[in-house]
C-alpha cells in the first residue's frame, strides 16, 4: 500500500469501529477502516461477558445511559435480522448481605430513572425457585427480565462484512504509527505506508488517548482495567437459568455467572486497574479469586470442566461516562474521538455509530445515505437455533454439513469452509473459532486441532 | 428422517468398541454396528506411532496404527458394520440414538447400546493454567495428530507438563517432529510412570526433569515464548516455543451425560454396576470411558469380556428390543 486517500478513516476495528464503518458505509464517502491486528475485533471486543444490557444500572442522564438503551434495541433487532444468536434470559441481581438487600429498591429506582421499568423485587424463596442451584446464603433479588445474552463476536464480523461489501476498505495488519494534520486533512503513517483522509474517527479503544495525544488532545487517560473470565463446559449449562448479577460497586458490575448463547456458563469478570495495555493474560490470583466467588454463587459449577480462561482490558478513564468528542482543529477537516467505551460497548455500538454520524453532520460534513447496505446472513451459532449438523435440508444440499469436524462444539466441515470463503476470512485458529466455534470446546483441540490447522493452512 | 434397528449399537471405534464388536459377532449376535465420528476407525492408536500396543490382548508389541488396523480389519471380516464420519449426537430414548453423517441424520434403535467414547487429556484451560493465549500449546493427542497425521509445523523447543506414560510418548513425538524437549515438569514429587523410565528418557533425550514443580504462567503474544514455573517458592522462566500438556485424563462422557446417566464425581466416568452396565438400562460403558486411563490392550480385553456376557444374555432372551 502506498499513499491512499479517503474521505473518512476510522482507526480501530473493534465492535465500536466496525459499527461506525457500517453506519457510514450507507453514504458515498470513501472510507478506510484500519486496525493493527490481523482480524477485526482482536482488541477488547473479543473478551467480554456478552450481555446485551438494558442499561438499568447506568448513571441516569449520562450519554452512556442513553446510548446503551438505544443500542440495546438496535443490536437486538439487527442480530435477529442477520441471524446472530441472542437469547432472552433475563438477569437476577442477587443480594447476599443485609446491606445489599437494602440496596435493591434503590437499584430499582435507578432503573426507572434510566427508563427501564420492568424490574421486580423477589424474595429468597422466589429466587431459589428460579435458580435451585444457587449457593446458600442469598437473601433476595431484583429481576431484570430485559437483560439478554448475545454472541459477542458475530456482530463485529457482521458489521465489518457489510461495510466491506458496501465498499469500505478494511485495512488490517495496519498500525497507525504517526499522525499529523493540516487544514485539509490528516496524514496517517502506518507500517503499510501513508493514508490521507479528510475526516478521522479515533475508535482505538485502549489506545484512544494516545491517538488523541498525537493530535494534541489530552481530555482523558485510559487506564486498562483487566477483567478475567472463566468459561465452563456446555454440560454445565443446565445449572443456571438466568444471568446472575451481584450488587454493583464502585469498581464496576462485579462478578457474574452467566449462560452463553453457545451453551456454556461464564464466571467473571474480575476488575483490576493496571498500567500495561497489553496485559491480557489471566493470573493465578484472578482465577483462584473467581473460583472462590463461583463456589459461593453456584457451588456445583466447580465440578464442571473449564473450557477457556481469558482476560479483557476495559478502556477505563478518569471519567465515568463515554468520551465521545468532536474536536475543532480550525479547518475543513474533522476529528472525532470515541473513547472510554468501557463496559457496555458491545451493547451501545450501533447507537454510538449513529450518534457519531449525527455529530459529524452537525459539524457540516456532507453525509447522504445513498446506499442500501448489502444483505448478509450470518451462521447462527447459538444452541437455541438449528445448527448446521442438525439441519437435514442443509445436509441434503451440502453433505459436509453432516461432517462434524469439531466434536465438542459440533462445528461442521462446511461451516469451516464457508468461513474460509467469506469476505473476511479467518487467519488463525482463534479467529476461525470466533466465526464457527471450532476448537473452542472442552477438548481444547485434542481431537480437531490438526484438522482445523490443515484446512486453514491449505486454504 | 432415516431410521433403522440393530441388535447392538456401539459408539466409538477405538480398541474397546472394536474388540467388543468382534466378540459379539463371534458369539453369534446378528446386527452389530459401530458408529465412529472420525473419518477413519481405530481410535487413539491411529495416531500413536510409537510401539507399545497389543501386549495383553494380542501378545505382540505393535505400533498404534498397526494395532488399530488389525482390529478394524478383523471387525470388518467378522461382519461388523462400521460407519465412519458418523457422530452419535443425542438420545431419543434409552435405546435410540440420533446420528449425524454426510448422508444425513438417522435414528438407530438398538437392543443394547455400548458406549466406547474413550478419554482425552486435559488441556491448558481445564487445568486452569494462567497467562496469555498464544499458539504452540498442545496435548499429546493433538501433538500426535498434527505430527503424524498432517505433518504440520510444531516448533523448536518444548516443555512437557506431566510425567505419565503418555508423557514419554510426547517426548518421542516431539523428537519425530524435530522439536527438542527442554524440560519435563510435574507438580507431584514422584513421577507417574514406569520405574526408571523418565530418568532413562531424560539422559537419552537430554532434558531436565523438574518434579514438585508447578506451571504458573504461559508467556507469549502470538507464539509461546516461555513458561514460568515454580518450585518451593522459587520461580523461573523456561524459554520454549511449545508446551505439551500430557495425561490428566477425563472420560469423554458427553453422550452419556446427555442421556441423563450419572457421573462419578472424582473420575468423571459413568456410574455402572459391576458389569459395566448402567443401572436399569441396556446401556454399557467400555474402554477408557470407564476410569481412565488404561492401556489399549486392557481396554480391549475388558471389552471382550463384557461383550461376551452381553452376547449370552441376548441369546438367553433376557435382553429384548
Ligand atoms: C471483561 C469485560 C466484560 C465486558 N462485558 C460486556 C458486556 O457484557 N456487554 C457489553 O455491552 N460490553 C461489555 N464489555 C465492554 C465491551 O467489550 C467494550 O466496551 C468494547 O469491546 C469496546 O470496543 P472498542 O471497539 O471501543 O475497543 P477495541 O475492541 O479494543 O477496539 C479498538 C481497536 O483499535 C485497534 N487499534 C488501537 N490502536 C491502533 C493503532 N495505532 N493502529 C491501528 N489500530 C489500532 C486495536 O487493535 C483494536 O482492535 C466488557 C468488557 C470487558 C473487558
Ligand atoms: C498419546 C497417547 C499415547 C498412548 N500410548 C499407548 C500405548 O503405547 N499403549 C497402550 O496400550 N495405550 C496407549 N494409550 C492409551 C490408548 O490409546 C487408550 O487406552 C485406548 O485408545 C482406549 O480405547 P477406547 O476404545 O476406550 O477409546 P479411544 O481409542 O479414545 O476411542 C474412542 C472413539 O470413540 C469415538 N467417539 C467418541 N464419541 C463419539 C460419538 N459421540 N459418536 C461417534 N464416535 C465417537 C472417538 O472418535 C474415538 O475414535 C495412549 C493414549 C494416548 C492419547
Architecture overview:
The complex is a heterodimer of chains A (459) and B (321). With 459 residues, chain A is of the alpha+beta class. In chain A, the strands form five sheets. In chain A, strands 1, 2, 9, 10, 11, 12, 19 and 20 form an eight-stranded mixed beta sheet that branches. Chain B has eight helices and 20 strands. By secondary structure, chain B is an alpha/beta fold. Chain B has two domains: 187 residues, FAD/NAD(P)-binding domain (3-Layer(bba) Sandwich), CATH 3.50.50; 123 residues, FAD/NAD(P)-binding domain, CATH 3.50.50.60. In chain B, strands 1, 2, 5, 6, 7, 8 and 20 form a seven-stranded mixed beta sheet that branches. Chains A and B meet through helix 7, strand 18, helix 9 and helix 12 of A and strand 10, helix 4 and strand 15 of B. One flavin-adenine dinucleotide binds next to helix 1, strand 18 and helix 8 of chain A.
Can you give me a brief rundown of this structure?
Chain A has helices at residues 15-24, 63-82, 98-113, 124-130, 154-165, 208-214, 284-297, 345-362, 392-397, 413-420, 429-436, 449-457, and strands spanning 4-11, 31-34, 51-52, 86-88, 91-95, 120-123, 140-144, 148-150, 169-171, 176-182, 185-190, 193-202, 223-232, 243-245, 256-259, 265-268, 272-273, 306-316, 323-327, 334-339, 404-406, 411-412.
